[in-house]
Design goal:
Strand content: 25-35%
Number of domains: 1
CATH topology: Rossmann fold
Number of strands: 13
Distance between the termini: 13 Å
């Protein structure tokens, strides 16, 4: 069973719809006992980094997530804010992140003359830096849907699967062992995004 973690900040139903379309059992839950039984976990998220971490703490989910991911090595997919929460900290508030990836989340800052808006919203290509099972049978020449004001900066390129350029080159896909993250929304990225979700299911 795949558990979609409900910590009050995600586009949960659209993700579950894609899992249903792929024929996979899933549950949306914030209950520790449900997450404990998960064979895979998805951590979605839309909104403020510090609020997201405070919600995970308030719902008493930190310990069970550390147990499942760091000890049991259950695969997890973080989407958008969910991926940013894997890092050590963010410029968006003073709350520490989960710390699973040596990285931080940084706000886009652009000169008014370059016509790049923040948040970054729209369709962009990715550039693969290394192979990943997430991208089996995925046409990376196609675009993926982004909506975010902060981006992840990793200490080690070993954790970087793909980057995207929006004024600057930023990390758009990460992987460290059983930990996967996409800054874009695969559930909103048409057939190629759906293929990424199916690849995560197959892991």
């Amino acid at each position: 069973m795949i558990v979609i973690v409900d910590f009050g900040m995600g586009n949960l139903r659209s993700i579950q719809h894609k899992l249903e379309k792929a024929g996979v059992e899933s549950r949306i839950s914030s209950e520790v006992n449900v997450i404990k039984e998960a064979h895979k976990i998805i951590l979605p998220g839309v909104g403020h980094f510090a609020t997201g971490m405070k919600n995970l703490i308030q719902f008493k989910l930190i310990d069970i997530l550390n147990e499942k991911i760091l000890q049991e090595k259950v695969p997890i997919l973080g989407i958008c804010l969910g991926m940013q929460l894997f890092t050590q900290h963010s410029e968006e508030g003073r709350q520490s992140g989960l710390g699973w990836i040596k990285a931080k989340a940084i706000k886009f800052e652009y000169d008014q003359n370059n016509n790049l808006r923040v948040p970054h919203v729209g369709w962009n290509k990715i550039a693969l830096k290394k192979d990943s099972t997430l991208f089996n049978r995925v046409n990376v020449e196609h675009r993926f849907y982004f909506t975010h004001s902060y981006y992840v900066s990793c200490e080690s390129m070993d954790d970087v699967i793909a980057t995207t350029t929006y004024g600057i080159e930023f990390v758009s896909v990460i992987q460290k062992d059983n930990i996967f993250g996409t800054q874009f929304h695969p559930e909103k990225s048409h057939l190629n995004g759906f293929e990424i979700i199916k690849n995560f299911i197959r892991i």
